[in-house]
Design goal:
The complex is a heterodimer. By secondary structure, chain A is an alpha+beta fold. Chain A has three domains: 113 residues, Acyl-CoA dehydrogenase/oxidase, N-terminal domain (Butyryl-Coa Dehydrogenase, subunit A, domain 1); 130 residues, Butyryl-CoA Dehydrogenase, subunit A, domain 2, CATH 2.40.110; 136 residues, Butyryl-CoA Dehydrogenase, subunit A, domain 3, CATH 1.20.140. Chain A contains 13 helices and eleven strands. Chain A has a four-stranded mixed β-sheet. Chain A has a four-stranded antiparallel β-sheet with strand order 2-3-7-6, with no helix packed on it. The radius of gyration of chain A is 22 Å and the shape is globular. Chain A starts with 6 loop residues before the first helix and ends in a 13-residue tail after the last helix. Chain B is of the alpha+beta class. Chain B folds into three domains: 117 residues, Acyl-CoA dehydrogenase/oxidase, N-terminal domain (Butyryl-Coa Dehydrogenase, subunit A, domain 1, Orthogonal Bundle), CATH 1.10.540; 124 residues, Butyryl-CoA Dehydrogenase, subunit A, domain 2, CATH 2.40.110; 154 residues, Butyryl-CoA Dehydrogenase, subunit A, domain 3. In chain B, strands 1, 2, 3, 4, 5, 6 and 8 form a seven-stranded mixed β-sheet that branches. The chains are: A alpha+beta, B alpha+beta. Chains A and B meet through strand 9, helix 10, helix 11, strand 11 and helix 12 of A and strand 7, strand 9, helix 10 and helix 11 of B. Strand 11 of chain A pairs antiparallel with strand 7 of chain B.
Chain lengths: 408, 412
């Protein structure tokens, strides 16, 4: 058994730690505190990070990327998130969809999209699935309701997205709206799921399209104003007779769900857990610093048992999460049988990130009628985990993938 | 004897406040135009309307023109108000409590004759208290009057200097609840060069008294955020002269600060906390019956059902404790004759409520999926409000220790 990182992994980790400390952290709070959600984004930090390789970390070497393994990706995400969770997510969102391009796109599509993505430090990727009445139903369509998603025009809303795509010659005409789309107002290219056969469910009747942000008939609507992750842009994508060439279909027509399944989707859950780990590291650092440098009731805060109990809890949970995140990433790198650890670690991270950030607030406490702004920010960022990758009710569906007995 | 039957008057008053909240407060408080901005100015028109309903003078004895409500009734009504807007409830709760304790009890007849007409004459006449924290120096606790970055030992104190029969007050209190809307300031100051304290009555217009602008959210180099409810501002006293007739009798002031206000304030905050959690809970029930996902309304999913059940159980448990604490506070004889065991009931109710209901509010919010964190929806605000209540002056990591000390007969 060996917990050591190799030289490359350690190198990326150190690089990310330095960038987070010197570049991300100084702007983290001021960006969080901008009232208009459209104005919280900062292109300079993206460009600087891109030049260091953080935007293209996951792209195969064949296409000029770094082809970092999952362990490296997890380490980098956690380090970046220690500076700011939502800046880290903006970078890793690009990895998620560069996995998809590499796995599912044709050579022509890679030429047209992957090359410009590699060349442009401000080329950010997004993916449009969620709609106003179709979030987790897309990710995990209900099996126990055979009618779900069948007839779009029924009087009662049914499962699945409704964005409609109709073929007209060499083009597809798209109509509808996507909600909460990550990198919505900043991405140059979106992967968008649309209904190409409204009479069947989404597994059989949806197609994935590549939508450049200058597509005619396509525009970005509102940017959502969130409690946490305020740097991260979640936007509304509006399609009004948007015209998309047939050459932009990913995989096959009516094969959208299949195309999505090739994106190394296990990445998505490890990603969120690794990001949560970065927040926990940040909280632990803040709490320890505060406890060792402030006095209450005549002694250092850390000399109070109550605080020792909290610090113990914070370190314990954070280290357990770190072990779980790296193990899940390592299992995926080795392509070991999938026992669902990548989903379990995400579910675990929700609990951990919320407890650890709350404990940090317990230790800091209010100062008069004020609160340390970063302590509050970490709690707000952690609240995002309640609904990431489907809420807890959706995530329990992992049960279907769990082994009968645990592997030994 | 154990009787949980409310009187017809209590039910009627509660229904009236609930109706006011549903009709007038909720549409304003949950309007995205108010929810989205960081800045939440006090809803002063609604505050005045609530005053006209008698909520400002809730605790004032009937012979003084108030409703003569006991602490339990006050808690029931504050819960209703807080389900609409937590800031309204905090401001009115503070004024109602101080009206009861200062106007109703601590003032002498001459003082009451002067201040009561002023209080009754204007809907927006509120009361603010500037007092030394009774728990200061007891142990690890955070203090409302503690300035940023200060240690407990450095807490500033207002000083009163004798000048003939009058007193001259100097000093600054950095965080004073109700200061922006107060017509009357009740100020406790340390006697300069002497023993003890003196408690005086000051009009808002008193010479030498100035109410500052409160720090905006994210002000102060961005490193601290505003963390309170209601209306808070710093108050500075500069050579503020107080005539003898505006000084409260020492024993009355002591009773008011220690027996009258401290415990009741804590119980009221617990009731307000319940109101906030209830707003989240009721929103979640409505949404769970409406939202269709996974082939059914989400309320039919067991995982959502368990969440809502847990929220309901936590709210009821918190209300039972809070009502008990409210009742005991008004009936110390029930502890004296051993009907009820001797615990610091306000601390018990406040600590349990704050922790349980922050968790419950997050559970209710979770039913909304991503909508829970959107600032144009109220769920994120309820989560934030319960977090502020969990971490504020009379409730922090260390506050439940008072319970341990009571059962052990030990004082820090």
């Amino acid at each position: 058994m060996d917990f050591a990182l190799n030289e490359e992994q350690r190198g990326w980790q150190m690089e990310a730690r330095k960038f987070a400390e010197e570049e991300i952290r100084p702007l983290s709070l001021s960006r969080d505190q901008i009232a208009n959600p459209k104005d919280t984004f900062d292109w300079e930090i993206i460009k600087k990070g891109s030049k260091l390789g953080f935007r293209t970390l996951a792209v195969p070497k064949e296409w000029g990327g770094h082809e970092a393994d999952f362990v490296t990706q997890a380490l980098v995400m956690a380090e970046l998130a220690r500076g700011d969770s939502s800046v880290s997510k903006t970078f890793s969102q690009c990895w998620k969809w560069s996995h998809l391009i590499a796995a599912s796109c044709s050579k022509d599509q890679k030429e047209r999209f992957l090359k410009p993505f590699m060349a442009d430090d401000s080329f950010v990727l997004g993916k449009g699935g969620t709609e106003a009445n179709a979030g987790s139903d897309n990710r995990m369509p209900p099996d126990n309701d055979p009618k779900a998603g069948w007839k779009l025009r029924a009087e009662r809303p049914k499962a699945g997205w409704k964005l409609r795509a109709e073929r007209r010659g060499d083009e597809w005409i798209l109509n509808g709206t996507k909600m909460f789309i990550a990198n919505g107002s900043v991405a140059k290219l979106f992967f968008v799921d649309a209904r190409t056969d409204p009479e069947v469910n989404i597994r059989e009747g949806s197609t994935m399209f590549m939508i450049p942000n200058d597509t005619p008939g396509f525009r970005v609507g509102k940017v959502f104003n969130k409690r946490g992750w305020r740097f991260y842009q979640n936007g509304e994508l509006i399609f009004e007779n948007a015209r998309v060439p047939h050459a932009n279909v990913v995989g096959e027509v009516n094969g959208g769900v299949k195309a999505r399944a090739t994106d190394k989707s296990e990445f998505g859950d490890i990603e969120l857990a690794a990001n949560a780990l970065g927040i926990c590291d940040d909280a632990v650092g803040m709490a320890m610093h505060f406890a060792r440098n402030h006095k209450r009731a005549g002694k250092l805060v850390i000399d109070h048992q109550l605080v020792q109990l909290k610090l113990n809890e914070m370190y314990m949970l954070t280290e357990a999460l770190r072990s779980f995140v790296l193990r899940a990433a390592w299992e995926r790198d080795r392509k070991l049988p999938d026992y669902g650890n990548n989903v379990l670690v995400m579910n675990y991270s929700q609990e951990v990130v919320q407890r650890v950030t709350r404990a940090n607030m317990d230790i800091h406490g209010p100062e008069g009628a004020m609160m340390n702004a970063r302590v509050d920010k970490l709690v707000r960022d952690a609240m995002i985990w309640t609904h990431l990758a489907g809420d807890t009710v959706q995530r329990v569906k992992i049960v279907k993938r769990l082994p009968l007995t645990l592997p030994t | 004897m154990y009787d949980l039957q409310l009187t017809p008057e209590q039910i009627e008053f509660r229904d009236a406040v609930r109706d006011f909240v549903n009709r007038e407060v909720k549409p304003v408080a949950t309007d995205p135009a108010r929810l989205e901005p960081f800045e939440k100015p006090l809803l002063t028109d609604l505050l005045d309307q609530a005053s006209q309903m008698g909520l400002r003078g809730l605790g004032l004895p009937e012979d003084a023109g108030g409703a003569g409500a006991d602490t339990l009734t006050t808690c029931m009504l504050l819960e209703e108000l807080a389900a609409g807007d937590v800031d309204l409830a905090v401001v009115l709760g503070e004024t109602a409590l101080l009206a009861r304790e200062v106007l109703g009890t601590a003032m002498n007849p001459a003082q009451r004759a002067h201040w009561l007409p002023l209080f009754e004459g204007e809907d927006r006449f509120h009361i603010a208290l500037i007092a030394r924290d009774a728990g200061a120096g007891r142990g690890w606790s955070y203090h409302q009057t503690l300035p940023l970055d200060a240690d407990e030992a450095d807490a500033p104190e207002l000083a009163a200097t004798r000048d003939g029969k009058a007193w001259v007050l100097n000093g600054t209190a950095p965080f004073v609840a109700n200061a922006p809307v107060a017509g009357l300031f009740v100020v406790q100051a340390k006697v300069s060069g002497g023993e003890g304290t003196v408690t005086v009555l000051l009009a808002q217009a008193a010479q030498g008294l100035s109410v500052g602008e409160f720090l905006q959210p994210f002000a102060g180099k961005g490193e601290r955020v505003r963390w309170h409810h209601g209306a808070v501002a710093p108050v500075t006293l500069k050579n503020c002269r107080v005539a003898e007739e505006d000084v409260l009798a020492a024993d009355a002031a002591h009773r008011m600060l220690h027996a009258g206000i401290a415990g009741r304030h804590m119980v009221q905050m617990a009731a307000i906390n319940i109101g906030v959690a209830r707003a989240a809970y009721e929103a979640a029930i409505d949404y769970a019956k409406m939202r269709w996902q996974g082939g059914r309304h989400i309320i039919e999913h067991q995982a959502i059902g368990m969440k809502l059940a847990d929220v309901a159980i936590q709210i009821e448990a918190a209300r039972s404790l809070t009502w008990k604490a409210a009742w005991v506070t008004d009936h110390p004889e029930a502890v004296a004759d051993r009907s009820i065991n001797d615990l610091p009931w306000p601390v018990v109710a406040r600590s349990f409520t704050a922790e349980a209901l922050h968790r419950a509010t997050l559970e209710a919010a979770e039913c909304f999926g991503a909508m829970a964190v959107m600032r144009d929806m109220p769920l994120q605000k309820y989560a934030h409000d319960t977090l502020v209540l969990r971490h504020s002056a009379d409730c922090d990591l260390a506050s439940p220790l008072v319970v341990a000390e009571t059962v052990a007969g030990y004082t820090r």
